[in-house]
Write a structure and sequence with these properties.
353 residues; alpha/beta; six-stranded parallel sheet; three-stranded parallel sheet; globular
Length: 353
């Protein structure tokens, strides 16, 4: 919980990872370039007193993740977003199977998302079915710039990708999270272009497309697509750190999102462990739009809007009743381990709960 202006705000971090970029797991030079690029993002936007050493950053493990999110980071729940990169990492960078160990141990705290890659063909469709059957997936993360053999990416509006989106609709996997934002070395920026979300969102109105990183640096393209596609949402991961280091730029991004998408279609994400949520949640929660930005965009970032962005919007997409979940969290193992029960103590349940 984050305490703000005398009120508690439920934080559902919609974008976290538990990765393994240890040297032992790297099988391609792209793996080293990838984690080094992540580390540059980390040190470039993290306050000095919160920066990690590179050795810790490569592989931090489940105990540290739990402390950073739930004990120190104001986070109440989190959504695991996998990033396989099996061309670069022998066991994968951050897979659904690896994330499942923690998610199954703490089901009240985590939402476990799957993934697909249309270049896997029929075998991939069958794997998606098996993953859904095993993990009851409600969402998938897709990484259109991932390398596979000679291919350096794929498009969400391709015929092959549409077969997977049809499968998602058939299985009831309603939330699709495409990474559409800054590139990471050695991946190609154009393979992350947000343009292919448009036709996919139009063709599958029963699915929600949570565009991670809001298309940056193509924010205008993203906003103009999202304005006409009511099933397109903006994930603030990567944009959020600007609230501290580049507040004017963050105000511009947030103003555009609230103007074009509205307050019900923007989701907070820390992108842990690129950044820790302890300082990042505070930076976003304490952020205020400049008066001229409020006037230009005609929007406010007040407490009600912050509640939606920090948790309520993601909870709606994943059908999570936050009042009931608070009661569940009061007695879970994480609350016991980190002495958190009091923050969820709002008195006995009522008939309306």
């Amino acid at each position: 919980m984050y305490h703000h202006e005398g009120e508690d705000v439920f934080v559902l971090d919609s974008h976290v990872h538990m990765w393994d970029a240890s040297e032992e797991n790297i099988v391609h030079e792209g793996g080293e370039q990838f984690i080094q690029c992540f580390y540059d993002y980390h040190t470039g936007f993290t306050p000095e007193e919160h920066q990690w050493d590179l050795s810790t950053y490569r592989k931090y493990g489940p105990d540290r993740l739990l402390r950073d999110l739930f004990r120190d980071g104001h986070v109440d729940m989190a959504i695991f977003q996998p990033t396989y990169l099996t061309e670069f990492y022998e066991e994968g960078f951050n897979t659904t199977e690896q994330n499942a160990e923690l998610a199954e141990e703490h089901p009240e705290r985590f939402v476990l998302n799957g993934r697909f890659d249309p270049r896997d063909g029929e075998e991939g469709l069958e794997q998606l079915e098996r993953d859904h059957e095993r993990y009851d997936l409600q969402g998938v993360k897709v990484y259109t710039a991932e390398w596979k053999g000679d291919s350096k990416g794929w498009r969400l509006d391709s015929e092959e990708a549409f077969e997977y989106l049809e499968k998602c609709a058939e299985l009831g996997i309603e939330n699709v999270h495409p990474h559409k934002g800054p590139t990471i070395r050695p991946l190609n920026r154009d393979a992350f272009d947000v343009a292919d979300v448009d036709d996919a969102a139009t063709s599958f109105p029963e699915l929600n497309f949570v565009v991670e990183h809001v298309g940056l640096p193509r924010l205008d393209d993203f906003c103009w697509i999202a304005a006409q596609e009511p099933n397109v949402y903006g994930g603030l991961a990567v944009a959020a750190p600007l609230a501290l280091s580049r507040p004017r730029k963050f105000g511009e991004i947030l103003g555009e999102l609230l103007f074009w998408l509205g307050e019900d279609r923007v989701l907070f994400g820390s992108d842990y462990a690129i950044w820790e949520p302890d300082w990042l949640v505070e930076a976003v929660m304490e952020f205020e739009l400049a008066p001229d930005q409020e006037a230009e965009y005609g929007v406010e970032f007040d407490l009600d809007v912050k509640r939606k962005v920090m948790g309520e919007n993601a909870a709606r997409l994943y059908d999570i009743d936050l009042s009931r979940r608070e009661r569940d969290l009061r007695g879970d193992e994480i609350s016991e381990r980190f002495d958190l029960a009091d923050q969820y103590d709002r008195g006995p349940a009522t008939a309306d709960d």
